[in-house]
């Protein structure tokens, strides 16, 4: 149940028949099986998924694995929650029912049929999109019905047709952005320059939702192919970096843009030969200006992108020219995560190796103390090696009162990485 059971022990007892026989916790989505017993949906699904074919209570064989929602019991549980709010009980939300496979098949048939009226096709796609957004379970049901192949066909067929088709394509791209694609499915997109160009064009659409969905699909495709040549072709597509940077710079009122934008930028920056295009498109400014606004996982991707771009001369120069780069990177060390620290130290190492001015900026920002703490921390070995190399590089820039204690650290005993 929401929260823990401990706060309820002194004031309220959960009725026995409101508890799932498997988990013994308050049921959030009670369902009845063919034996007449009721369980919480997640518990009985886990029971069956591990290979059990009998009813946990009666031990009778489950001849039918259909789970029937017990709406009456669920309403009674919700009423009980409301009646006991003073004891810290939160009302459980009404669960959304999982997608029915037959309904999903019908929707896919409608969406893919050229003889079906446009309005019905669009309605079917929007219904599928809503189901896919609701839960992993729904996405599994949709994927099991050959949906990805159908949606790819809709998204990229007749790209030069009328605006009606564009709406169908946009909906298909939106649904595909919620799934993982197999390598053959990614190849279907990546191996056709027209399809790649179409997705890049969508990055400049008037609707930010269309732009973000296209960026998400581009990232999925790049991550799903092993061919370095095809990845390079995508990163070399005209306007792709400008489109992604534009998404990163979108106002924070649409936070998904920031999350998808950094995933796509990082995937594109993994292609070394076209990183200069990211710099030319304004990726450096976008990364530094938005670095404080990323969530933890996205911060790590952003910092990894910073380190990758610092490895090329134009990127290193652009970061060095931004007044906030060095102070932010120094501040991040030992703040967000071990990976973030490693990437920040790596970026600083590249920047300081290229410029004595940057070395002085880093020392003035307090990098010395951070690095000395880092080499003594439980951070990754790669981060420590980068810190040691940076300490050695900055030795001549240290304040005089700091060098006396520097011999305690094995800065000269550095292993290359």
UniProtKB/TrEMBL annotation:
Pathway(s) the chain acts in: Protein modification; protein ubiquitination
SMART domains, alphabetized: Ubox
EC number: 2.3.2.27
Catalytic activity reported: S-ubiquitinyl-[E2 ubiquitin-conjugating enzyme]-L-cysteine + [acceptor protein]-L-lysine = [E2 ubiquitin-conjugating enzyme]-L-cysteine + N(6)-ubiquitinyl-[acceptor protein]-L-lysine
Superkingdom classification of source: Eukaryota
Top-level enzyme category: transferase
Classification via InterPro entries: ARM-like, ARM-type_fold, ARM_PUB, PUB22/23/24-like, RING-Ubox_PUB, Ubox_domain, Znf_RING/FYVE/PHD
BP GO annotations: defense response; protein ubiquitination
Segments forming domain U-box: 13-87
This protein's record includes keyword Transferase: yes
UniProt keyword annotations, A-Z: Transferase, Ubl conjugation pathway
Single GO molecular function: ubiquitin protein ligase activity
Its job: Functions as an E3 ubiquitin ligase.
The protein's name in its UniProt record: U-box domain-containing protein
